[in-house]
Amino acid sequence: MRPSHDDSRTPAHGSPDTPASGEPVPAPLPDGSYSVYPYQGLGAGRPGPAKRTARSRAMLVAGALAVVLGAAGLLLPAQYVVESPGPTFNTLGSAGDSEIIQIEGRPSYPTDGELDLTTVYVSGGPSTNISIFQALGGWVDTNDVVYPTEFLYAPGTTSDEVDEENAAAMTSSQEAATAAALTHLDIGYTQELTVAAVVEGAPAEGVLQAGDTVVAVGDTRIDGIDTLRSVLNDGGGTAAEITVRRDGNEVTESVTPRQSDSGTYQLGIELATSFEFPFDVSIGAGMEQVGGPSAGMMFALGIVDRLTPESMTGGKHFAGTGTIDAAGNVGPIGGIRQKLIGASDAGAEYFLAPADNCGEVVGHVPDGLDVVRVSTLDEAINAVEKLAAGGSAADLPQCTP
């Protein structure tokens, strides 16, 4: 039976198989008649061309927007810092056209071999921006280490502040390295301690001032931090008469030190150290882009070698890292794994590592590189001299698990 002419689902023109105005098409039944409802076969219920076009456009716009947002996210700066192996510098050699260590006013001697300071490339942080691609590359590259920016830098730190801090640390390490080298060689120099700040609530608050130079405690002249600590500890917490130079005049103030958790007696002041050496030692020419305190020990080794007639290295290739103070104590640094790789890539045979970094050294020593553990400048010099004479690194202090 065919549908009546008033059936709204019947096409207005043409055969029953021809669509009109996007309406559904009646499907023939097995007996040849037509149903007022289309046969539910393949394609049944599909939207018409107009609806399909609108939906396709919406999907294309949404897809394009997702691609744009994704690309923007990948290109925006990532809040990570990547540390990579950096170049090495032979402290006995030159950087550019200048010797790294220059000595005037005292005889110095030619050297052979190499005493390399090691560095780390730092990408990201306040100084430079990196993309998420660079951060991902750092995660993939086993030679690199990736840190969240806030792990290394306080919020709000600027690139200028980082550069200034690194430059100040480098200058301080060079002065301490010179002092340590001269101490080892028994060459006299003077050292002054200046109050950089007074800790709030400390015994010295309201008594000592920033800018005061500590001259004496009682009858003892202060020629360095070790002397100051010793005389305060010997006093056992009794009131100390502190003589300082203030605005060109010497003033004596009474301060009662307070015992710290470690058992030592302290005034509660932050000190800055300045030195006056008997001759000029200039360090770091051609290394303006290198900052921080971690080259101190290698600078000190280079100075000792330059001031000693006999060659310390015996022509061998050493590398190392570590902070140093005027007394010759070697301290830990950051990026030890990257520095080991940099030293190996530069062809070093031996690496001098701070004892406090040994936990990061174990399991990360490149093939062909022997690591010796050191805690003081004297230990480092002893290690270099023994290895230069043909000794074995295995007979020297090691970083062990």
From TrEMBL:
<dbReference type="GO" id="GO:0005524">
    <property type="term" value="F:ATP binding"/>
</dbReference>
<dbReference type="InterPro" id="IPR008269">
    <property type="entry name" value="Lon_proteolytic"/>
</dbReference>
<keyword id="KW-0720">Serine protease</keyword>
<dbReference type="Pfam" id="PF05362">
    <property type="entry name" value="Lon_C"/>
</dbReference>
<dbReference type="InterPro" id="IPR020568">
    <property type="entry name" value="Ribosomal_Su5_D2-typ_SF"/>
</dbReference>
<protein>
    <recommendedName>
        <fullName>endopeptidase La</fullName>
        <ecNumber>3.4.21.53</ecNumber>
    </recommendedName>
</protein>
<keyword id="KW-0378">Hydrolase</keyword>
<feature type="domain" description="Lon proteolytic">
    <location>
        <begin position="285"/>
        <end position="387"/>
    </location>
</feature>
<keyword id="KW-0472">Membrane</keyword>
<dbReference type="GO" id="GO:0030163">
    <property type="term" value="P:protein catabolic process"/>
</dbReference>
<keyword id="KW-1133">Transmembrane helix</keyword>
<dbReference type="GO" id="GO:0004176">
    <property type="term" value="F:ATP-dependent peptidase activity"/>
</dbReference>
<dbReference type="GO" id="GO:0006508">
    <property type="term" value="P:proteolysis"/>
</dbReference>
<dbReference type="InterPro" id="IPR036034">
    <property type="entry name" value="PDZ_sf"/>
</dbReference>
<dbReference type="GO" id="GO:0004252">
    <property type="term" value="F:serine-type endopeptidase activity"/>
</dbReference>
<feature type="compositionally biased region" description="Basic and acidic residues">
    <location>
        <begin position="1"/>
        <end position="10"/>
    </location>
</feature>
<feature type="active site">
    <location>
        <position position="294"/>
    </location>
</feature>
<dbReference type="InterPro" id="IPR027065">
    <property type="entry name" value="Lon_Prtase"/>
</dbReference>
<dbReference type="InterPro" id="IPR014721">
    <property type="entry name" value="Ribsml_uS5_D2-typ_fold_subgr"/>
</dbReference>
<feature type="active site">
    <location>
        <position position="339"/>
    </location>
</feature>
<comment type="similarity">
    <text>Belongs to the peptidase S16 family.</text>
</comment>
<keyword id="KW-0645">Protease</keyword>
<feature type="transmembrane region" description="Helical">
    <location>
        <begin position="58"/>
        <end position="82"/>
    </location>
</feature>
<feature type="region of interest" description="Disordered">
    <location>
        <begin position="1"/>
        <end position="33"/>
    </location>
</feature>
<keyword id="KW-0812">Transmembrane</keyword>
